[in-house]
Amino acid sequence: MNTVFSHFDERLTRSLSGALDDAHDPAQARPRLLVVDDQPANVQALYRTFADECQVFMATGGEQALTLAESKQPDLVLLDVEMPGLGGHEVCARLRANAATRHIPVIFVTAHTHVEDERLGLDLGAVDFIAKPINPTIVRARVRTHLKLKRQSDLLRSWVYIDGLTGVANRRYFEDRLASEWRRSQRDGTPLSVALIDVDFFKKYNDGFGHLMGDECLCRIAKALKTAGRRPGDMLARYGGEEFVLVLPDTDSSGAREVSERVHRGVVQLGIIHATDAVAPYVTVSMGIATKPAGVDTPAEPLVDLADRLLYQAKSQGRNRTAYGEAMASEGLPKGGAGVVEAVEVGAIGGAG
Ligand SMILES: [Mg+2]
Asked: What is the rounded CA–CA span in Å between residue 248 and residue 237?
């Protein structure tokens, strides 16, 4: 689901810059709480209990709760068990069944605290129970505990997807994200572009300046690439070694060209001095961009393969340039390459000579 990723990206960014971001935007940093109860008086009571420390979303029915859980991505749900229509147990089961809401912890709020009720609730994936009528002090303490646990698990989940050196997403995240963007592009009939980016003569750079400088070079380039793919849906990941990948949803060939220009310009403007026998005085990159035009039906992997072949082409034609290609065939990409392949020379922008 796209909501899961856009929210996750936000989390990823937040967990990386941590306290800094929180200081910038206290509203963002406040935990999100979804309160669900068919009795408006109960919802109001819980709202008053948490309004100071949480962003509180309220629902008075099961369907509304599911919609809000998916769109608002709360950190915790306080869920009434007894509701007309869609009851709390069913809501909990559906939250678990949906990939976009699976990770959101649920606390049941119920007048029925028999062992059997609790067992059923726990089987459904609830993390805790709170007895009605609620005691604000107890509810607050329980909620704080579970919000803390949620923060920790979010952080752990984000580390799994972060590249340790550059702090951008890693290859695992790229693969998950590509699959999801792929489905969206198929469903909505929108174009999708994948850009593979490789630092030119990086081995020479490492040999000439050492691995520490090499690492720093990669970090600076990652930052420049992040700025180049700057729309909210664009996603940068480290693909491996000195290779990065940009996933560009809803981007056709001409959009991909604009991104390519920003990438080349951004990297050269870093002004990282390169080894004397490299392609330019400053560090440059080569790119292969494969585009799946709107309405063209091809699987995801061949598009990445195509981007890879295009990157190779950009390299072999002199580096510091981008080769573009479009997927055409409905039964998959033709073996030899793409429908349209074109290498565009960039030249040394801002170079000393
Ligand atoms: Mg009720």
From this structure: 12
